[in-house]
Amino acid sequence: MYAKIIQAYKDAADADLAKSMSAYMRNQFPFLGIPRPKRGEIFREFFTPPALRDAAAVNWAFVNDLWKREREFQYLAVEYVTKLRHLLLPADLRRLRRLAVTKSWWDTIDGLDRIAGGIALRFPEVNQTLLAWSLDKNIWLRRIAIDHQLTRKDKTNTVLLGQIIKNNFGQKEFFINKAIGWSLREYSKTNPAWVRKFVGKHRGEMNPLSIREAVKYV
């Protein structure tokens, strides 16, 4: 099955679209030129709900192979692991780390953060690892740490969220400051009072971009 889906992706390639897709990502990665709807169609053809439901484990060899190929294959890997996230264990966080620091950009990181967050929600002991990531020299690990609680709503660990954000005050990196604002903005939909208080207390330490995003709905 794995070889067949790889071939299906290759068969759907569009050289002209590949150029524009690569240009959109600043020509950092080669693309096949497959738009999202077509990718979803191929995925559903091979990974039907019964096949995913009956899976006993994530095939990390398959994931690692996909990561070496064109960009659409990384999207495939993220979607595949996302569908099987209920099977992940704390030890898999190191595998996600390896992916995160390879061919890194926001388009894959913003899928990996939800996967890491799912592990942390079920296994709180990995919170210390994510706290360490929030201080890592790699900005993409920091971004995962900042945003890994997105969509948790009332299950958000506010102590952890606050500490991770404070660990990233003073950063000049756009993707870090945007992530801070994004995490706070999302949580403000659940607890606007907490976000208002946090921003009010730390406004002098926060980047204007982070503040602007954080208070968008409060």
Please characterize this protein's 3D structure.
The protein is an all-alpha fold. Helices cover 64% and strands 0% of the residues. The protein has 14 helices and no strands. The chain has helices at 2-11, 15-24, 36-46, 49-53, 60-67, 71-83, 93-100, 106-122, 127-133, 139-147, 158-166, 174-188, 192-202, 208-214. Helix 1 runs antiparallel to helix 3 and helix 5 (60-67) runs antiparallel to helix 6. The termini are far apart. The mean pLDDT is 96.
Comma- or semicolon-separated keywords:
single chain, 218 residues
Topology record:
Elements: H1 2-11, H2 15-24, H3 36-46, H4 49-53, H5 60-67, H6 71-83, H7 93-100, H8 106-122, H9 127-133, H10 139-147, H11 158-166, H12 174-188, H13 192-202, H14 208-214
Helix pairs in contact: 1-3, 5-6, 6-8, 7-8, 8-10, 9-10, 10-12, 12-13, 12-14
The run of helices and strands is HHHHHHHHHHHHHH
Helical content class: 55-70%
Q: What is the approximate shape?
A: globular
Q: CA-to-CA gap between the ends?
A: 48 Å
Beta strand count: 0
By helix and strand content, what is the structural category? mainly alpha
Strand content: under 5%
**What's the mean pLDDT score?**
96
- Main beta-sheet annotation: none
